[in-house]
Design a protein that fits this description.
Helices cover 42% and strands 15% of the residues. By secondary structure, the protein is α/β, with parallel strands linked by helices.
Length: 248
């Protein structure tokens, strides 16, 4: 784990002194969210598999006067999340913000034709990793005075769509884990949980799913990131759900 940091920002930035972990922060919505959180004063933990891409985001944060730590982690590794939680505990002793963003999109195909190997990878990344993040960071979240967890969802997790069965099933399961966690922590802790559907957004995953779509016809990741950061600053009720507007 390597770290770049600068002196704390003056001017009372809203998340100054808070530690935020964003999964899948090497590109797309995750990278935009990491940059936006750092701009508000949070120290951002950047996770993902692409070390060079993470270093590029870390450098952008540093150049803008922010603070970040890169932690290359493959969420499918059995012990990767546990090792990360141990490192965070030893370095900061708490976690204030967890953004569960990383996900993989299996090939769009009929339920009868789902490739089992690809489906297993999606289940591990989209579902099992969500549970592992909760299991390993729950204690650190409870040590925060204002812990917030946001999971990124999708419309197909709630409304069935032909050929999206594999992805939809994994995201629906991930959402249910987060909803149950919200119920379990609602009255006994300060942890608050929200699920956000980013809607149509200009990402690599979107380009794979809709190869003929003009990228400029959908909103950029920064629009979603700005809404996520705004939500993190609001007194939302645990179990909150919303969809980011398509207007941009």
């Amino acid at each position: 784990m390597s770290e770049n940091s600068v002196s704390e920002n003056a001017g009372g930035k809203p998340f100054e002194g808070q530690v935020a972990l964003v999964t899948g922060s090497s590109r797309g919505i995750g990278a935009a969210t990491a940059l936006a959180l750092a701009a508000t004063g949070a120290h951002v933990l950047l996770t993902g598999r692409d070390t060079k891409a993470l270093e590029a985001i870390e450098d952008q944060i540093y150049q803008a006067g922010g603070s970040a730590t890169i932690a290359p982690v493959d969420l499918v590794e059995p012990d990767g999340i546990a090792r990360l939680a141990t490192a965070v505990s030893q370095r900061w002793g708490k976690l204030d913000i967890l953004v569960v963003n990383a996900a993989v999109l299996p090939e769009l195909t009929s339920v009868a034709d789902i490739d089992q190997r690809a489906f297993n990878k999606a289940l591990t990344t989209n579902v099992l990793a969500t549970q592992a993040l909760i299991a390993n960071f729950d204690g650190l979240l409870r040590k925060s005075d204002n812990a917030r967890v946001i999971g990124l969802s999708t419309s197909v997790a709630e409304k069935p769509r032909a050929f999206w069965g594999a992805y939809a099933a994994t995201k629906a399961a991930s959402d249910m884990l987060l909803d149950c966690y919200a119920e379990e922590t609602r009255n006994a802790t300060k942890v608050r949980v929200a699920i956000v559907n980013p809607g149509a957004t200009r990402t690599a995953m979107r380009a794979r799913a809709y190869p003929g779509e003009a990228p400029a016809s959908v909103k950029p990741p920064e629009v979603v990131a700005d809404r996520l950061v705004a939500l993190l600053g609001e007194a939302f009720e645990s179990g909150h759900r919303e969809t980011v507007s398509s207007a941009f």
